[in-house]
Description:
The chain is mainly α. The chain contains five helices and no strands. Helix 1 crosses helix 3 (44-66), helix 2 packs antiparallel against helix 3 and helix 2 (26-37) runs parallel beside helix 5. The protein starts with a helix and ends with a helix.
Amino acid sequence: xxxxxxxxxxxxxxxxxxxxxxxxxxxxxxxxxxxxxxxxxxxxxxxxxxxxxxxxxxxxxxxxxxxxxxxxxxxxxxxxxxxxxxxxxxxxxxxxxxxxxxxxxxxxxxxxxx
Length: 114
């Protein structure tokens, strides 16, 4: 169990750094790499999804310390006709879907190649 938490922490850190340096599109690339390398071991898609979401929680938290994220979310949500909390939730679910789906697909491809 401790190993899985360590993996989540390291994968979150890698995702965080890659997102800051290169952009959001690295999230599915890292997820795919994780799924490909961990095929047949536990739940690599779930690990990738949790790690990506945790990385973006940290990014959003740092951003919130530097500026009014809540006000911006409320304003943008108002323009879209949804509460600001829905946008914040979407920001945290989006990387989980990207990384988890990429990890699952890469694991499936790796299994069919073997």
